[in-house]
Amino acid sequence: MLPLSLPLCQSPHHAACAGHPPAGPRTRSPRPRNAVRTAAGTVLRTLAAGLLACALGLGAAHHPALAADPGTGAPPLSVSEKDREAALQPRLAYVLSGSASADHVSETGLTRLTDVLALRTSAKMAPPVALDPERDDPLLFPVVYWPVSAAIAPLSPEAAGRFNRYMKAGGLLVIDLGDGSRPTDDLLAGLDIPPLKPMDPTHVLARSFYLLSRTPGRLDTAVAWVATTGLDNDGVSPVVVGPNDWAGAWAVDGSGAPLFQAFPGGEGQREQAFRFGINLVMYALAGSYKGDQVHSEAILDKLENRK
Amino acid sequence: MTAAGSLVFAPLVPWPALWTLAALAAVVLVFALVRRARGALLRALAFLGLLAVLAGPRWATETQDPLSDVALLVIDESASIRLAGRAERTGQAATDLERTLKAQPNLETRIVRVSDAGAAGTVLADALDSGFADVPVERRAGVLILTDGQIHDAPEIRPPGAPVHVLLTGHEKETDRRIAVLEAPRFGMTGSKADVRIRIEDPTLKDGTPLSVTLRRDGEPDVPLSVPANRETAVPVPLTRPGPNIVELSVAERSGEIAAVNNRVAISINGVRDRLRVLLISGKPHMGERVWRNSLKADPAVDLIHFTILRSPWSRDPTSASELSLIPFPINELFEEKIGSFDLILLDRFSAADLVPEQYLENVAKAVENGAALLLSAGPEFNEPGGLGAGPLARIVPASATGRTFDDAFRPSLTAAGVRHPVTAALEPARSGSGNGSGNGTNPGSSGAPAGAGTGAAASGASAPDTPLTPDWGPWLRQVEMVAPTGTVVMGGVNDLPLLILSRVGKGRVAVLTSDTLWLWAKGWQGGGPQGELLRRLAHWTMGEPDLEEEALTLQTKHNRLVVTRRTMGQPDPVVTVTGPEGPPKTLVLSPQRPGLSMADMAVGLPGVYRAQIPGGPEALAVSGPPNPPETTHLVATARPLSDLAQATGGSVRFLGDGPVPEIRRVAPGSGASGRGWVGLRANGAHVVTGLSLDTALPVWAALLLVPGLAALAWWREGSGAQVLGRLRKIFSPDR
Question: Membrane-crossing residues (chain B) (predicted)?
Fold first, then answer.
């Protein structure tokens, strides 16, 4: 799949670039008048959007294409059903690995986590969604869970680009290394993973709902790793990495019984795994809210009513 | 042309030979005198004559042209002259002086006219230096300065080496009333009062005589004050707004004073606002929450207090409190005790259901009516039980909820009012919004949107004044239907239903966003939109930021220009009148910049107070220069600044009053240069030599007669001549 920007702007000879005279020895011609440019841009953008949508096979899904407002420069809207639903109600997403059993664990695990969230917190989320990394855009999901150790092939550059954009725009990518037995360097290539450090108990993720010191899943190999710094996006780490098979602890069978035994801590460890899952979602939704609450209370204490 | 003679020598033999001869003659003479030889004296004369002939004396005659001296006439044409009504008198005196000077023989007159140098006042040093730059001191006759004496660089004037006469165009007994600003703070906390220390100077009044002073501020009623004369007084000035607070103080004009312009002073004090206290309550953790947080936390002017309802009262969790990182929602503290201390209350998808009793929401409504601001971001909970669509807040919400919610994509648009309104006017397109720049050139884009294409030219707004505009922004989803808006609808959504409504309630303001999907812009989804700028402006508008007021007239000085900016939601005003410290009001044409915004500008003249007024509309003040600009503060004619210079150069200082200009006399260097009714300019007598003639001083015939004659006489005296004389002596002295 071609990156969208390429056909539109990188070739100076392409029709879509008519509004931008190519740089180079040729002298820059005077800019066309706004109206002309806008109209031309609209036609070209509309054309390009249509062509691309067809070429990329995205138009095949649900497309409630609204007519463009008359007399404006805005192109008609085209919103996929998946995006629309994600925007209307938040939901967890997991990356399809290609392995049916692993995907099943992700699905049931996240479904159970969604239920526990609804029970214990005010975050009411829709059932989780599976993402095909080569087709779907994770942009609108608060948390994307990726059991990377189960993945069969590395991400294409386009897919990696979408994940990078997701992280940059404030998303939270949870990379589960499973039991850590499989090297994943090649699978993570192309992702802009910032420098990481183990989560310490003062980190906002460790107190975004529950107070946590460990981050267990089905296993409790090591504490999760988070970005060392993160000044963008309210200081929220764009990625959380760990080798504990979190979905394995959350996953249940049809009767609601756990699919796997949590090791070594048993049911206590599973409870901690759910708490970590809840903290992850709260961290993704409320950002560093719990980080500056002490500050907020200090300000509040000083306030006095207006006369 | 004059001539002058002098004796010069052109010896016939080289000087050493001449000196040798003279020495020999001297030796012979001494010998003769020692021997008491007769005729020694005559011989000496003969020697002298010979030497004189050899020395070749010449009578040199120079032909000279006398050089004219240069006088400088400096005419002060600065503002203080004009303001005190002396321009005519000065002009007349200048003409008279010019004529008198022109009539002087051997005198060149140079005229330098000095206007004021802005904030520096009237400066003369340069005028004197450049006027005399090419004139050597020996040719300078003197300087006449026609001025009111209000010179602001007197200590820097270098004495020109000739008398400086100061002719003051005024009376010695003039008096003036003025306001002197002794100390004015440049910054102050908005809402507090700043003390401006002034003194009203009026030499005709006894110290402490109460004078009525008017304090005037932009768009506020005048405040009368009583200030004692000639005493330092602190005037408290309320700072009501952030940004420049222009204050004008004026005292009544007294009859007989020189000018009224300095009976007014204007001061600009920058109002600094305390950090805005914003209470953000998120009704639940949701995707949009972090957008509000990011925007408010990034704003350095905001102190954010944020609460999120992380757990509802009916959540079931067996975990003990010690393992939870939760605090009880301080309902009473927030909604009762401290509600009045917030500048902005932002309810983000908040629902009161089972959480906040109605009486607390009533407190919010009251706080708004008392001056706070409320910003509502409505989601689906708005119409649910406990939602804010009903209940106490409904009375301050500027529209009615129908209970319907739309769940389809729509593109937010600007209404006709929104195109004008400062909160939404000219919002930049967000094609390069966050999340769109992946940095490595592979822009993945989203589902089918032509990311990166287009330049959003439509968003500039200039092409379609006063018609709704749908910029090329990314779409939103979900809108709570609200109808019958009572405020200004600046953004529209589905079916052009109100998306963003702004209104004023009592002393406060309310903004309602009828969608909870603004966050889609922040994600850069389908190109995203300018949510950061919109939220910043929205928050600052609710708190009365002057730059975001719908109706505004501002006057600013920028790079020596006076810039009038008029913003209005109504019909554009064609003109504005600007009144400066001097002269009649000027009418400027306001040129439209974009819908609702027009500007005009003009060059700044005198420093002082400028007032812009829309005919029949608002007015605005601006201050150019310091509170007491030198040129307009002191207007009484005074001898003081220049008297030292005049004295040091042997010149004089006098008030011309209504009398004639003094007579001009030429005086010899070193003699007195002024007197009653006259001023003296030095006559230097400098000249240039135009020719030289040499005439021999000892003609040949005289030399021939002199030298041999003396020699013969000496010989005669020495010998036979002596005998003859001896006989003669005997004849005439019979006693012997």
Answer: 12-34, 41-60
